[in-house]
Structures are given as C-alpha cells and as structure tokens.
C-alpha cells in the first residue's frame, strides 16, 4: 500500500506524522499492495477553540470504481484521527464483504402450467 501524508495548512511535526502512521497501520494489513491512501491534514484556528483539525482520507482501490473518501473534524488531532479511522475501516469491511459474495440469491422454481376446464352447465 502506498501511503502519503500531506499537510494542507502549516507543517506537521514528526511525532504527529508517526502517530498518524501508527493509527492507519490497520489498513495496510487488509489492503492490496496496489492501493493508494492519501491523508490530508488541515489545521483551522477558530475563535471558540485554539485549534481545530480536519483530516481528509482518499483511498483508491483496485477493481473499485469510486475511491473511498472520508472527511472528519475535531478539536484535537487524536480525536480526528480516531473518527477518520473508524469511518474508513467500516467502508473497507463493507467492500470486502460484498466481494466475498455474502449476498443470498433465491433459487428460481418452475411450476408446471395447470389448465382449467370449463364446467358444463
């Protein structure tokens, strides 16, 4: 799996990058080598809180038409990463279940045609 981290505003410290890699490591075990995960981190300064973080995950998988896209907000980086991790894990598991063919298809049953005779009066 190819893993890219992009800081969309400001710079990320090395310990923040390590923490992000550690939390997203779960996906590396469950995804093929051809997949690409891009993580974008934005830091917003608002009046209510000193710092607010936004994380954008963009996951491209082989044989899947649309890439997975997750966007989360929180006041701390750890909370934002946890939310994004949960969302992307749910989506990956859902795709894997679909590919395994868990869907149940009802067998078709052909019934013989029955002809009714008219009653004589």
TrEMBL record:
InterPro entries assigned: RHF-like, RHF/RaiA
Stored Pfam families: Ribosomal_S30AE (PF02482)
Protein name in the entry: Sigma 54 modulation protein / S30EA ribosomal protein
Organism: candidate division WS2 bacterium ADurb.Bin280
Organism phylogeny: Bacteria, candidate division WS2
């Amino acid at each position: 799996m190819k893993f890219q981290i992009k800081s969309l505003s400001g710079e990320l410290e090395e310990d923040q990058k390590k923490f992000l890699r550690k939390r997203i490591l779960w996906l590396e075990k469950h995804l093929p080598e051809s997949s690409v995960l891009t993580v974008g981190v934005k830091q917003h300064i608002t009046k209510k809180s000193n710092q607010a973080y936004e994380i954008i995950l963009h996951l491209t998988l082989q044989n899947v038409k649309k890439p997975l896209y997750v966007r989360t907000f929180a006041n701390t980086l750890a909370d934002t990463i946890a939310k994004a991790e949960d969302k992307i894990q749910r989506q990956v598991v859902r795709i894997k279940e679909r590919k395994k063919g868990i869907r149940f298809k009802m067998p078709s049953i052909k019934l013989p045609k029955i002809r009714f005779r008219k009653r004589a009066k």
